[in-house]
Structures are given as C-alpha cells and as structure tokens.
Amino acid sequence: MKALLLAAGYARRLGDLAKETPKALLEVSNKPLLDYLIEKLENIQDLSDVYLITNEKYFQKFIEWHQKYTGRLNVIIKSDGTSSNENRLGAIGDIIFSLENFKIDDDLLISATDSYFNFELDDFVNLFKKENLDIVMGQRFFDKEEIKRFGVAELNSNNIIIGMEEKPQEPKSDIVVYATYIYKRETLPLFYDYKNEGNNMDAPGNFINWLYKKNKVKVFVFEDKYYDIGTKDTYIKIKNV
Prior knowledge:
241 residues; Spore Coat Polysaccharide Biosynthesis Protein SpsA, Chain A; 7 helices; 13 strands; 26% helix
C-alpha cells in the first residue's frame, strides 16, 4: 500500500492565515496538522512510501518541513507546477498527475491534508483488507444545517453507497463522507476514464459520486472527532484542542 497526500489547494477561505503557510502546516496545539496525519500513517505496518503533492506557491514550505522530518516513512514531495487558484489542477487532477509522476501501481490511501482527527487508521485499513472494496471515511451527523457543507452518502444495510450528493440543501441521509479514501490498485485506471468523460476535476468526492455507480464503494463509519479545516472559524475552534 502507498499513500498520497493532497496539499495543492490555495486555501482562499482561510484568508491571511494561509497567505504564506499551507493549511497542512497550520498548527494545532503547537504542531502542524500534517504531523498528526503522518504519525497515523507511520502506524500502518505495510505502508512505507508517502507521496505529497503540492503547488509552486507552497512547495518550498513543504521541503522545509521535510528537512525536519525524522520518522520512518519515505516521504516524497512534488509540485504540480501550478501557481494560483486560477490554474490549479483540482484535487482529481492532482491525483492523476500523481499517478503518472510517482508511477503509482499499488493499493492507494488518499487523504486531504486539511483535516484533524483523533483516532488511528488501523480499523480503516483493516476494513479495506477484509472487504477488498474501495472505501471512504464517513461519519453520522446530527446537525442538519452543518451537514449541508459536505458530501452526503445514502447507504444500504452493509454501508455500501447507493446514493450520493455534494452539499445538498435537502440531505437524504445523515452520513457525511470525508476526503480520506483507500482505492484498490485495479481502481486507479478509472481516474483516467473519469477525466476522459469530461467530469469535474475539483473536489475528490466527485470521483466517489461517479465510482459508486460502477463499483461497490463501502463507507467506514466512525464515531470519533474529525475536523475539516475549511474556514477560519473551524481552525480557530480546534487550534488549541
């Protein structure tokens, strides 16, 4: 298994907070968000290679972070060559860029780097191995207004996706899905099919919305805390958790 970390966004909603610092390197309790994620990846025994894709604006910041990294993982950082929000590739574009440039041909854990959660990834990985299905991380939401900010999945009794909407005004389910996935090696070529059909290359959840109609996609439903750092308010809320 390999891991791909998405860190090529421009964090416009964070304003000055991300003017010089990528979201992944913003600090929570005096430690970059990225450190928390890397520590959890280090605990996955059969994972050794981690690829991080960023952009020209933040590339040097991640290189500086990497120079201080002393963990066991082989972390490889690359810029997608974009320099602004206007010419960005989008998250799915960056996944395809990474598949090509890192020559990835293995089961692949993909995660956004602008999140913070307080649980290990063992159960997530074990579910993937047990089911041999593409899986996405999800959580039950009880706030009906908050749920409208996310991708929402309808599930069957086995937690297989049977319907999905991005930021619905009238949610049909209380299950939110996050930008943390594990894809089978055999699924990776489908990213090219998705692109060739002219689909939206931005939010990674768009691919799941396309994929579940072709293959079974299972949701790993957890109950712990998970914060998606999309706005200043969310970041301020968790900065000193």
